[in-house]
């Protein structure tokens, strides 16, 4: 019964999304699916499909594969957009929220589009936002205000990730980059998983026996608790990237209290673990009795207690510094470390 109810809700949600999407957006989705890489290619110099009310974003690729224009980065740009387009439509086929449009000047009719906007150079990558007003100008898509995306220097994979991050921040939808041959990836993951299971099956019983079952269960429990309390499931379900990059470099800590990168789970888990260890060491030192035969004397004990106290302070400050990056009004922080 629960499964039936869930299926009903899924169907109702699909109907609702379709109802809220315009007929134009539905048509563009069908047109995108006819393309192998989900990119709509304009070859006749006409943008009739993008007139009227637009309730969707449009990523416009202005490029030229003509030898006359000698554009060395144009093909590279297309390769990057193809990766992102496939990843987008893999997860959001029925969202009707974003479409990819290529205008290649190798097609002579497209020169009229370049002339309408006085295009002098290629390539360009523009993200045109939705427009709720009726548009009858066939060049409206190219003349309206838009976001300009500048391709960073780097490898194709990192550039595709950067473009996906740019679109994710604008559309508020996480894009999980999928690239490579699916069959090759399947075989690779299968072989690695098979080897890991085989090794564990042969060596794990002896390892558990040597360490003791209780210790193994404790480690497993701590790992599961840390994964559960630091947002691992959120990152996995939302398909959030591990880290992000902008013009200034890597972004480790995301802004905002309702978002995080995958690396933040590891960082916070590490801080929690070190906090727990430092606290236990401090408790142990507090109950440690010095004698003539003990390893520590009173002076060493006091130095270690002070060191552990400072460590606890710094670790808590590191934890609250992460929170301050997300919420500057957080009232319970110590020292802001970064």
TrEMBL record:
Organism the protein comes from: Candida tenuis (strain ATCC 10573 / BCRC 21748 / CBS 615 / JCM 9827 / NBRC 10315 / NRRL Y-1498 / VKM Y-70)
Protein's UniProt name: Subunit of N oligosaccharyltransferase complex
Transmembrane domains' residue ranges: 183-202, 214-234, 266-285, 305-324
Localization per record: Membrane
InterPro entries for this protein: OligosaccharylTrfase_OST3/OST6
Keyword line: Membrane, Signal, Transferase, Transmembrane, Transmembrane helix
Gene Ontology process terms (BP): protein N-linked glycosylation via asparagine
Coarse class of the protein's main subcellular location: membrane
GO function term, MF aspect, one: transferase activity
One Pfam family cited in the UniProt record for this chain: OST3_OST6
Membrane topology per record: Multi-pass membrane protein
GO cellular component, one term: oligosaccharyltransferase complex
Annotated signal sequence range: 1-19
Keyword Hydrolase on entry: no
């Amino acid at each position: 019964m629960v499964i039936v109810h869930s299926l009903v809700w899924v169907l109702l949600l699909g109907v609702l999304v379709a109802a809220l999407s315009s007929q134009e957006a539905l048509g563009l989705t069908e047109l995108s699916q006819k393309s192998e890489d989900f990119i709509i290619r304009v070859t006749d110099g006409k943008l009739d499909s993008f007139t009227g009310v637009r309730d969707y974003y449009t990523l416009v690729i202005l490029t030229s594969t003509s030898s006359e224009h000698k554009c060395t980065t144009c093909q590279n740009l297309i390769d990057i957009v193809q990766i992102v387009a496939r990843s987008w439509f893999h997860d959001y086929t029925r969202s009707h929220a974003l479409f990819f449009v290529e205008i290649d000047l190798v097609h002579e009719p497209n020169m009229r589009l370049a002339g309408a906007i006085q295009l002098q150079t290629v390539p360009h990558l523009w993200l045109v936002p939705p427009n709720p007003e009726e548009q009858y100008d066939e060049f409206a898509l190219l003349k309206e205000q838009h976001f300009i995306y500048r391709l960073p220097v780097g490898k194709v994979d990192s550039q595709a990730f950067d473009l996906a991050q740019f679109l994710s921040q604008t559309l508020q939808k996480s894009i999980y980059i999928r690239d490579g041959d699916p069959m090759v990836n399947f075989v690779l993951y299968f072989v690695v998983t098979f080897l890991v299971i085989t090794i564990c099956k042969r060596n794990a019983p002896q390892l558990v026996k040597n360490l003791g079952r209780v210790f193994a269960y404790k480690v497993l429990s701590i790992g599961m608790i840390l994964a559960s309390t630091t947002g691992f499931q959120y990152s996995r379900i939302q398909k959030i990237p591990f880290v992000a990059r902008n013009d200034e470099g890597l972004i480790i800590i995301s802004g905002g209290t309702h978002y995080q990168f995958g690396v933040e789970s590891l960082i916070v888990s590490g801080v929690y673990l070190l906090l727990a260890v430092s606290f236990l060491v401090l408790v142990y030192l507090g109950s440690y009795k010095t004698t003539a035969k003990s390893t520590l004397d009173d002076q060493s004990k006091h130095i270690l207690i002070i060191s552990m106290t400072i460590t606890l302070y710094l670790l808590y400050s590191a934890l609250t510094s992460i929170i301050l990056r997300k919420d500057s009004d957080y009232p319970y922080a110590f020292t802001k470390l970064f």
